[in-house]
Amino acid sequence: MEHLKEKTLESEQIYQGKFISVRKDRVTLPDGTSSYREIVEHPGAAAIVPLTSRNEVILVRQWRYSIEKVSIEIPAGKLSPDEEPLDCAQRELAEETGFAAKKWQHLLSFYASPGFCNEEMHLYIARELVIADAKPDDDEFVEPLVVPLEAALEMIETGEITDAKSIIGLLEAARILQREED
């Protein structure tokens, strides 16, 4: 696939924020011409489908400023520097829901928007949940919502859940559970 590769000619950092940065690169395209690429750099994240013994999923409601509405999502958060994805998932589950899990399964990792962002999302199922301390970040206000997995899947169909990581996580969890039942 080398014939599709683009080569960076120059790179300029446009913005450095709390957890993202933006750069503008000039690249050589496969046909020899040049173009520009604007890239959002993100440290990566972990997302969790927390399942109870009755196949209920713990979701969170959260105001999302960028879309100016409340979003229903699976718990998730960004990786801290040098943090392993599983450690991040465990921390975020406790912070956002007040639960910890005895059993963890990595489902998959994916890039949410590789056309302009390098964020890699690591997706887990958490089972055998136990009570832990909920300690959301100071600027994070979340409200847990416990629903049967089937109801969460219906919320995708009705447009109540529109967050990509949540859709992927819930569908993948349902697929895994179905495979376990077969």
From TrEMBL:
GO terms for molecular function: hydrolase activity. GO terms for cellular component: cytosol. The keyword Hydrolase applies. It holds the Pfam family NUDIX. One of its GO terms (biological process) is nucleoside phosphate metabolic process. InterPro entries: NUDIX_hydrolase-like_dom_sf, NUDIX_hydrolase_CS, NUDIX_hydrolase_dom. Residues 40-169 form the Nudix hydrolase domain. The keyword Hydrolase applies. Keywords: Hydrolase. Its cofactor is Mg(2+). Coiled coil: none annotated. This is NUDIX domain-containing protein.
